[in-house]
Amino acid sequence: MKQGKKPTRRQLKIIIANVATPGDWLVTKSLPDELHLVRKNYPDTTKIIYL
User: Fold this and answer.
1) Does residue 33 lie within any of the structural domains?
2) DUF6906 domain location, by residue (predicted)?
3) Which residues, 6 or more positions from 25, have their beta carbon under 8 angstroms from its beta carbon?
4) Half-sphere exposure of 2 toward its Cβ, with a 13 Å CA cutoff?
5) What SS3 class is residue 46?
């Protein structure tokens, strides 16, 4: 599994709108129409946000 990166301000706004605790998530893949996230403490937990 790829290592997650800290989200940009634009990505953070999207994460805040879709996830309850935005500080726990890292971005693994950023596509034009979706955002792939992984949790910091639980790397098996992933989430895909469709834009």
Assistant:
1) yes
2) 1-50
3) 4, 7, 15, 19, 37, 38, 39, 40, 47
4) 11
5) strand
In a domain, 28, yes or no: yes
pLDDT in tens, 16-35: 999 988 999 999 999 999 99
Number of structural domains, the chain? 1
Range of the domain at 35: 9-50
CB 25 within 8 A of CB 47: yes
- Say how many CA atoms lie within 13 Å of 42 toward its Cβ: 6
Asked if the model's pLDDT at residue 1 lies above 70, the reply is no
